[in-house]
What we know:
Number of strands: 7
Order of helices and strands: HEEEHEHHEEEH
Helix content: 40-55%
Number of helices: 5
Shape: globular
Oligomer: single chain
Amino acid sequence: MSHTTVKTALRWLPLLALSFVLGCGGGRMYVNTEADLGFYEKVGVLTFANLTSDNNAAERVTASFTTELLMLNTVAVANAGDFRKASTTVLQGSTANSLDGLTTEQIFQIGQTAGVQGMFVGAVTQFGMVRSGQEEFPLVAVIVRFVDCQTGNVVWSYETSQKGGPKFPVFSFGETHTLGEMTTNVCRDVARSFGRIAR
């Protein structure tokens, strides 16, 4: 490697490091410090609300998040079909505004019916491909909350938005090109953030 090449590479190192840090940054998180996370032995995942134009966004993100939550193995997760049946019975099929529209009584009834102490509710706010220069990259944004089924109180909340593409404008490493990859990345980030405070 020539002296010029080495100097050029060294000049880019600080920017590469900064890019890596920014690329690995998490979302915005809230934790109720009075909550006893050890209390939650079994939880459920309510199908997320869909605030995007993609009709399948909520189902895809909910399924991916549930998978990532199961892989953490920090808390027992109710069977998706059983929990969906229990929540549908209580909500009479309507989950369009599950993030902010649930009453304390509805949350309590779902918990009792499904046999869970807490549940995740959320919303997909962005889901699709966006143009960046001459290419298109995936963009996924979600808000996910964990609520106590006895009180309806928010125990934990996490909001994140992530777009694919090169982590650094010169070097094309770490790119995320597909919506499926980005969905997995976002859901893994959300699940791991909950896992860190649940341990």
